Amino acid sequence: MRKSKLLAVAMSVMCAAALMTGCGSNGNAGSDTGSFSGGSASQPISVVSREDGSGTRGAFVELTGVEEKDADGNKVDNTTSNAIISNSTEIMMTTVSGDEYAIGYSSTGSLNDTVKALNVEGVEPTAANIKDGKYSLSRPFNIATKGTPGKLAQDFIDYIMSKDGQKVVEDNGYIASVDNAKAFKTAGESGKLVVAGSSSVTPVMEKLAEAYKKVNTKAEIEIQESDSTTGMTAAADGTCDIGMASRELEDSEKDKGLTSQAIALDGIAVIVNTQNDRTDISTDMVKKIFTGEVTDWNDVTE
């Protein structure tokens, strides 16, 4: 009996302490911001962007209005100088997953459970919404060659654009660029191909190369991951057979004799840390964050 009374007194003291310190709450009570604990303390935003030359960055700043034209008509990327720069899709994901207050962007096809993708204008970045045009942040994945491709390069390109290759594209979370594609039959060409460029295109290109080599065992394919601009430069100067870009080609790149083909359609997801309770964001707010106009999560509205 005495033990029961002592236990009851102890429980009462613990509950009282919890009420006084707020330990019994979930940290979100009374929150109207939709992110983190909802407290009044400053929650500075860690803006994470890709490097210059990244096709994902180029498409992202254009689609969100972070890039604008100056008085002379020149494109100006207004990404805040305080942004943390990541040099690949993998580094972007790692950086955002390791910083509770981070926000960045990534190919939807590269998303995993280490980060959280936000709905943009209330639309979820799914393959169906991207294909239907409902999700506004989307861009093509392109390959580019200079002049007439070699026989092996053309055989691999034919595979990518075939029913078989486009199924690989879709199986890996991207959207096929070719409707009613035909089945593939290899010409059996032998040799080595070098494919270089975008880190966003690289994951699906690796899957395509792996599948192609099962059909044509005589082929060797080396994939060099960098960025879209480097890939286009390599294709133009002949140091690779096929360049990869996660954006449309620039006029200057076309002037060097490059021609492109869209192999897939991909979305760009706005990503945050998994501890962030926010689920939606507007395109205008994304612009304000990435240009440095809004710097604290407490000032973020949908």
Automatic annotation (TrEMBL):
Its main location: membrane. Residues 38-163, 187-299 form the PBP domain. Residues 1-21 form the signal peptide. Keywords: Lipoprotein, Palmitate, Phosphate transport, Signal, Transport. Residues 34-53 are annotated as: Disordered. It holds the Pfam family PBP_like_2. Part of the ABC transporter complex PstSACB involved in phosphate import. The complex is composed of two ATP-binding proteins (PstB), two transmembrane proteins (PstC and PstA) and a solute-binding protein (PstS). This is Substrate-binding domain-containing protein. The lineage of its organism: Bacteria, Bacillati, Bacillota, Clostridia, Lachnospirales.
